[in-house]
Amino acid sequence: MKKIRNFFKVESNYQLLIVNIVFAITGATSLYFADYILDIFLINQNNYNSFFYWVGRILVLLPLYQILLVLFGTLFGQSSYFMAMQKKTVQRVRIIFKNK
User: Fold this and answer.
1) Could you read off the pLDDT of 70-92 as tens digits, one per residue?
2) Ordered DSSP codes for 37-48
3) Cα–Cα distance between 77 and 71 in angstroms, integer?
């Protein structure tokens, strides 16, 4: 169990449970809202080529997931953990775009 806690950088089993619950809720919710957002803009596989549909879906999912992760993390009392994760993600994206 200690290896898993070290991997997630958490201090207790309780915090590990909360972090995993937040990840699960965020993943499911982001998929639901991505479908809803794409439906608003009438983007579906019937109207668009599958390639464009999936590219659009991924482009909607990525920022939506990050926003919901911080939101649910805050609701579950783990805002500092998920804000640190968010900062890491933003730094990695900056490095990718900075190199190009």
Assistant:
1) 999 999 999 999 999 889 888 88
2) HHHHTT--TTTS
3) 10
